[in-house]
Amino acid sequence: MIIVMEPDAGDAEIAAVEARIRAAGLDVHISRGTERTLIGAIGDERKLDPEMFDPLPGVERSMHILKPYKLVAREWHRASTIVNVDGAAIGGNAVQVIAGPCSVETQPQMNAAADGVAAAGARLMRGGAFKPRTSPYAFQGKGVEGLTMLRNAAARHGLPIVTELMDVRMLDAFLEQRVDVIQIGTRNMQNFDLLKEVGRVDVPVILKRGMSATISEWLMAAEYIAAGGNHKIILCERGIRTFETAYRNVLDVTAVAVLKRETHLPVIVDPSHAGGKAWMVPALSCAGVAAGADALLIEVHPCPPEAWCDADQALTPAEFGALMDKLDALSCAMGRTLERRRSEATIEAI
Amino acid sequence: MIIVMEPDAGDAEIAAVEARIRAAGLDVHISRGTERTLIGAIGDERKLDPEMFDPLPGVERSMHILKPYKLVAREWHRASTIVNVDGAAIGGNAVQVIAGPCSVETQPQMNAAADGVAAAGARLMRGGAFKPRTSPYAFQGKGVEGLTMLRNAAARHGLPIVTELMDVRMLDAFLEQRVDVIQIGTRNMQNFDLLKEVGRVDVPVILKRGMSATISEWLMAAEYIAAGGNHKIILCERGIRTFETAYRNVLDVTAVAVLKRETHLPVIVDPSHAGGKAWMVPALSCAGVAAGADALLIEVHPCPPEAWCDADQALTPAEFGALMDKLDALSCAMGRTLERRRSEATIEAI
Amino acid sequence: MIIVMEPDAGDAEIAAVEARIRAAGLDVHISRGTERTLIGAIGDERKLDPEMFDPLPGVERSMHILKPYKLVAREWHRASTIVNVDGAAIGGNAVQVIAGPCSVETQPQMNAAADGVAAAGARLMRGGAFKPRTSPYAFQGKGVEGLTMLRNAAARHGLPIVTELMDVRMLDAFLEQRVDVIQIGTRNMQNFDLLKEVGRVDVPVILKRGMSATISEWLMAAEYIAAGGNHKIILCERGIRTFETAYRNVLDVTAVAVLKRETHLPVIVDPSHAGGKAWMVPALSCAGVAAGADALLIEVHPCPPEAWCDADQALTPAEFGALMDKLDALSCAMGRTLERRRSEATIEAI
Amino acid sequence: MIIVMEPDAGDAEIAAVEARIRAAGLDVHISRGTERTLIGAIGDERKLDPEMFDPLPGVERSMHILKPYKLVAREWHRASTIVNVDGAAIGGNAVQVIAGPCSVETQPQMNAAADGVAAAGARLMRGGAFKPRTSPYAFQGKGVEGLTMLRNAAARHGLPIVTELMDVRMLDAFLEQRVDVIQIGTRNMQNFDLLKEVGRVDVPVILKRGMSATISEWLMAAEYIAAGGNHKIILCERGIRTFETAYRNVLDVTAVAVLKRETHLPVIVDPSHAGGKAWMVPALSCAGVAAGADALLIEVHPCPPEAWCDADQALTPAEFGALMDKLDALSCAMGRTLERRRSEATIEAI
Asked: Which chain A residues touch C291 with a CB distance below 8 Å?
């Protein structure tokens, strides 16, 4: 940490800063420039915080030199983490696709969705049983019953399931249903009590980026989970909030490239929530993979106009199948492989 | 709701939209323009949603005409709501001040804080026992023990207490400690399960604006609480996230003016978190009251450089006293009155 | 245009709105709902503006139904515009690359840059002679002399040149030097006098998106150029300003997909300014092409650490060559072709 | 400037950084920490730029310690600058008000506006003859003829005039008309050629903040003007662009407080463009003054619903008069004085 003193800071003020650094067990290095004196703290600066120095007399400002995250930083863990979900590896050379409807509605709807998802070759299935809705009057999800429907539908094709946890009190139900991947939604990225709880279980977690969370805040949210002991963390970029109103969010592909450098964790992209319109999904999916995403989280519904939630962003199974073919070619051009489930027909033929 | 059809939409596509509106129990009104056909839904459009129409063939887009909130809207409840907290009215002509440290540290610290807050004339006291911290390694608050310290310190001067609830599982502890006002923090503005729970109790709630929440999302979060039966809701503007990095947040005074028109609920301002620096607090406090805020939420610490949290934004009791005097004059110029607790000395003298 | 009346608007107020619509030569259609009366204007609503109605008594708000741009809208010009720059077609099936240094420094530097750009196969060359710099003390560009250096260097390989115009008074010099493509920078996207001037010449224009310009404002800026008679307009996404500070801008790939639908004009991407770091350029270039960009604008410098401007974002010729190979494979996977200049050696061999 | 080396940077890489600092004439100070080596440049760091170091091998990042602006910084010019406009002092203890219509339309309209502005006691008059309009089809201003109308109307009451310059080629016309204050609009804040030109004349300049300009960029734009020799610069906060869509811009009152500390230049507020609605203007005007603004720039039109531009944000003369009374009381409460022109009647009576 560097503490920049005001131009007219005196020796007593410098000494007070020095004392506070030493009290935290770090060493001190002073550099007197022509316009400012700088005080450097030598040692593990994560023990220090700007607010320990900024209120002191004579201090102009103080800055961390190191990033605040450690467990999730690539600096300290060079090899990429691969999260294995029932045989599907996320974070390695393969590109994975997780697909399914926004919300669980009925068993037949889920079965049809699972059929479409499996036929197109996706290796994992998603579906929301608990829905974070802006309006208290909107459909709030089928709850625990929805978890069972999702589990049943996915089981018909041996697909692991991904679903969102909103409330700490529901974690036991998720464990009972053997949810394969717990999703933490954008509105809960800094719900720290929830992060602490999923940090205590041995289930992979998809941590969606908060709507206006910085890379640093996002990685610190992941650090909460890792600090609890759960290192199976997958970061999901889902579009950020900006001034633009022509589309719901701005898919931040730069974040994908930056995260692959900053952290060893897998990074995936949700093109469906990013744009908010089905017709944008192919372009955003391709952009995500081209930027380096390890997987995609795509909404697919057997009949989008009848969907109970986010109807305008779901692909039909046919559209999804065509996109999978495109992603296949693209992954190959990027030097990766789209992992694609072989259809039952193919499996039987072998 | 208005549904705008694409230029080449045919009769069958228009009929499909019409059918969907009628199925929801509303009437239909069609207007054929030179470039577009518009379909209007007549009736309670809150039963409809753009995503019911946008995925239909031939639909360009659809728009709500009415605001999505109802219980909290001034349109349906013209008189301003006044939330009475143990005799301190928030939302009427009086301007209130809630003050205290960012976090509860020790009983002596809290007592000193309470003394300073009371001496300057604030009518309510704040203090955080559960702290939402970006880093898992930072001080997370004193927890239930902190609630007791806050209660004890405030009781010495008869001040009602305001403190943040982060986790639904802690609500019972808040009720046991008879917390006078439950604060929902910026990161939990859309923690819908938490909103539902505080909607079920009879305790005033301060609902802070999410870091990048729109006015509409914020009012819909308030609607969650109101829909549960708790109408004692106070909205708190605390600065929004923008591109600017010279200060922590941008205090959005326009939101104050707009909310006073859109909702009947009281609106207050937190100048301490907005700017993030103690020296900004007086200017931002004055701007907040000048824009129409019903109360201020100000951080005061007996010795800011020693504070365990947000040290750089707390005022000393002396600075706070001087600010109260300024707010007194300002409130008066705005045609309001700063409600100011008479000091014990004054009370005794009467 | 739809005018939404306030709940208690009376007949006189409705009549006043009606009169104003008819005065502009449009027809009127009134729809009385249960909560609001809506007044629709039938005809060319581009003659109307919300500010004609919003200040009238009884009006709640008014909304355009149509987009404000016309000449640049795909709705009125279905076929994609292909801008031909000296044989290089931008906007068709081919993907083009424009490359070169941020700023023109010396003739040897420009020659080396041109050699590298040509060797890697780019079809067009860029270089800045007039530089918009945040600081008045920073290098402001070589001016007219720089245009000559750029022209000379590019001529050695027959590359058309792209360079930025900042000041209307310099347009003649650009025409004299036969600049092949005039670039309007992000800070001048709404310099309307400059837009009007480049609208009067017959030279292709690259219009960069303003740092926080909406899609609509950007297309209206293009409409200024088109309205002047110059239809050779190329839109360039170069990253937008958001709350994120970990990188310079956020490359908005959603804008690429949306623009390809909204306008018939070519859309290109500048991955160098978007991220601000050379190591991000390959990922962002790929993401841009995957999202549908028609060309890329890439900074290449013979020796980046010696560059006088934006040194940290330029690729070396070798890095650029490797990226061209990657883009070749990617374009192919996307069903397009990277247009690649054959090297002199190859040409001679034929 | 501090250069942070990568953890594994070797002696040769450190030496290369050192050489580059010394080549610029500064001294070097090296600090070896446990996790990083830091290299400090001692001397006038404005000669250095991060891009001189960031591309060098072994450099993680580099940071300025000092602010990039000098002429406009309060650090180097402690006393507040007072810009005197024909007797009206902006930047001292008095609070000034500049009022008038958005655009000059006709001589009678301007005369009526001037009468209203003068009657309410404002000391300066504004009016736009050249209008930056988003649409090429919208009214673009009356041009030079409009300047004359503004001058004539204002002269009837001896009011100095403030009007916007968009195009360098019009500067001579502004000087001929003896425009008292030249306004640089938000879209031209970084039109550096325009800034250089107004830096060469001896006329006060109001520099509006760019729609998404940081404080630092804004002050650097002012530095362009000051570097040219014109120190009569007035900064105008007019609302910034954010994610919020319920109002046009977010008036950034924090910027006012921060600027009063960072620069010696006067800071004023435009509440009319900030909110975009007349009903918001009183609240935003009060908030601006409460935050410390030295003047307000308020739109007043004799008949807002008939205004040719921004009709929905202009106050009537009567509304403006009432606001002036409120500002009078408020300025007094803030320890300042609203400077108010005595009416002709009063003057005659003396």
From this structure: 283-284, 286-287, 290
pLDDT of residue C12: 95
Cβ–Cβ below 8 Å for D312 and C187: no
CATH class assigned to D74-349: alpha beta
What stretches of chain D show up as alpha helix (H) in DSSP?
11-23, 50-53, 107-120, 144-155, 171-176, 192-198, 215-227, 253-262, 271-275, 281-291, 317-333, 344-349
Whether residue A55 and residue B307 make contact (CB cut-off 8 A), yes or no, is: yes
DSSP for B106-125, please give it: -HHHHHHHHHHHHHHT-SEE
In three-state form (DSSP H/G/I as H, E/B as E, the rest C), the secondary structure along A204-222 is CEEEECCCCCCHHHHHHHH
In degrees rounded to 5, what are phi and psi of residue B295?
-165, 165
Binary contact (A220, B135; C-beta < 8 A): yes
Q: What is the pLDDT, as a whole number, of residue D250? A: 98
Whether D255 sits inside 8 A of B244 (CB atoms) is yes
Q: Taking the CB of residue B169, how many other CB atoms lie within 10 A of it?
A: 12
pTM of the model: 0.96
Q: Where are the domains of chain C?
A: 2-63, 74-349
Is pLDDT of C263 > 80? yes
User: In angstroms, rounded to a whole number, what is the distance separating the alpha carbons of residues C48 and B60?
Assistant: 21
Query: For C166-188, how does the pLDDT look when each residue is reduced to its tens digit (9 = 90+)?
Result: 999 999 999 999 999 999 999 99
Answer yes or no: do B190 and A305 touch at CB < 8 A: no
CA distances from D63 to A258, D1, D42, D46 (A): 19, 6, 13, 11
Chain A residues with CB under 8 Å of C68 CB are none
Task: Please give the Cα distance from D189 to D194 (Å, whole number).
Answer: 9
| pLDDT over threshold 50, residue A173 | yes
Per CB-CB distance under 8 Å, the chain C contacts of B66 are 35-36
Mark the ranges of chain B whose per-residue pLDDT is less than 50.
347, 349-350
CB atoms < 10 A from the CB of C264, how many?
A: 21
Architecture of domain D2-63: 2-Layer Sandwich (3.30)
Q: Cβ distance C194 to C165 under 8 Å?
A: yes
Beta bridge partners of D128: D103
Asked whether A149 and A107 are in contact (CB, 8 A), the reply is yes
**Which one, of C122, C141, C1, lies nearest residue C64 by Cα?**
C1
Interface test with A, best of C218, C245, C253 (most A CBs within 10 A): C253
Contact residues on chain A for D7, CB-CB shorter than 8 A: 75
Shortest CA distance to A184 belongs to which of A252, A255, A132, A110?
A132
Residue C349 reports pLDDT greater than 60:
no
CA distance A46 to C88: 54
Which residues of B fall below an 8 Å CB-CB distance to C? 2, 4, 7, 29, 31, 33-36, 38, 40, 42-45, 63, 65-66, 75, 212, 241-243, 245
Nearest to A273 by CA among A86, A114, A131: A131
Asked if residues A297 and B36 have their Cβ atoms less than 8 Å apart, the reply is no
| pLDDT(D345) > 80 | no
Average pLDDT over residues C124-138: 95
pLDDT at B120: 97
Q: Which residue of C has its CA nearest to B28?
A: C33
How much is the average pLDDT of C314-321?
A: 97
Distance between CA A94 and CA A288 in Å, rounded?
14
Q: State whether residue C94 is helix, strand or coil.
A: strand
Only one residue has tokens 């579009």, namely A239
Assembly ipTM: 0.95
Cα-based angle C24, C28, C33 (whole degrees, multiple of 5): 140
Residue type, C127: G
A271/A257 Cα distance (integer angstroms): 16
